[in-house]
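Weekly structure sync, notes
Attendees: PL (lead), two postdocs, one rotation student
Agenda item 3: pending single-chain targets
PL asked that the sequence for the first pending target be pasted directly into the notes so everyone works from the same version. It is reproduced below exactly as submitted, 367 residues in total.
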Amino acid sequence: MENLIIFGGSFDPIHNGHLRIAHAASLLLNADIVFVPARGPRWKDPTSKPEERLEMLKLALKSDDSPAFSIDLFEMNSNAEVNYTIDTVRYFKKKFPGRHLYLLIGADEVNAFPKWKEPEAICELATPLYVSRPDVILDDAVLARFKMRRLPYDKSGPVSSSAVRSLQCVDVPIPVRDYIEKHDLYYMAKLKAMEKPNRLIHSLSVANLAYFIAQRNRCEDYQNAYIAGLLHDVGKDVPLDKAHAIMKETFPEYADSPDWCLHQFIGAYMANRDFGIQNRNILDAIEFHATGKPHMSPIGKIIYSADKIEPTRGYDSQELINDCLKNYYVGFLAVLAANRDYLQEQGYSLNNPLTSACMDLYLGDHK
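Predicted structure, written out during the meeting:
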C-alpha cells in the first residue's frame, strides 16, 4: 500500500477500540498501520513498564492477525527521555520516502496539537488524522490551521485505556486480559492486595467462566459478567464486626441476613467504593450471587451459576458448565437445583428470605 498510517501512543494498555479504529483507517485509506509504542510519552505517565506495554501490543496484534498491522520500535529503542512526534515522523519519512504518511491521533489530542514540538513541521511531513468523540469538542481553528483530516468512523466503542486500568471496562483482546491477570497489572494489583491467593484464583475462574457463558449466550453486556465475576468475593475477608456495621449503614433491609451471605452485600459495597463500579447490573449480580433472589438479571443468573460451578471448586461440574454455555437460563435452573440439593444434604438451612424466594420462583418450591 502507498499510504502509511503512524499510530503512536503509550498503549497502556492496547484495547479493542484502538484496533477497531486501526482497521477502519486501513480500509478507508488503503493504508498499512504501523503501531509506534512510546517509551517516554510527553503528556502521559504510563502505569505499566515499557516492556509490559510492548508485550501486550504484540499479543493484541498477533491475536488480530491483520497483514496491514506492524510494530516499529523507534521510540522504544530511543534513549531520549521524552519521545517527540516530530522525531518519529522524520524517521518514517526517511525510512519510507515514497509513501504518503498519516499521523493518527486521538480526538483529545487535537486541541493540544499547537503545543506539540514543531507542529507545522509535523504537518509538512504527515497528514494529521483523527476520529471524533462525542465527549470532546474540537477547536475548528486548530483543525483548519493544521489541515487535519477526520476519519469518518464512530464505532470504536466506549472504551479507553484509563477505563480498562480502573476496571470500568474490559474491552481488550483476551490475550491482553490474560497478561494483565498473570502480571498483576492495573486493577489486578489492587485486587491482589484485597484477596487471599486461593480466593483470587477462584475469583479469576468465576470471571472467565462468566465471561464465556455470557458471550456464548450473546448477552450484550457480556464484558460486565467478567467484572462482576472478578469482584464477586471482594468482601469475603472483611471481619464480621465491620461487615455488620456496613450492613446496618448501607443495607439495613438485609442487616439480619445470615453471616454466611453478608460478603455478597459487602462485595457490592466495596466494588462501588474501591473500584468505582456504578453499573447497577454488575452491582446487583455481586449483591445476590450467594443467596440468589427473585427476578435476577441475566448477568445475575450467570454469576450465581459461575460461582457454584467454576472448575477450581474441586468437583466435576462440566455437565453444568455445558448446560450454561448452551443456555444460561436453563443452566441456571440446573445449578440452582443442584445447589439446593447440596445444601440440604449438608444440613444448611434454606429459609433465609432471599434464598427461599429465589427457589420458590425458579424451582417451584425449596423443599
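Discussion points:
- The chain has a mean pLDDT of 94.
- Residues 195-363 form a domain with the Hypothetical protein af1432 fold (CATH 1.10.3210.10).
Action: rotation student to compare against the earlier draft before next sync.
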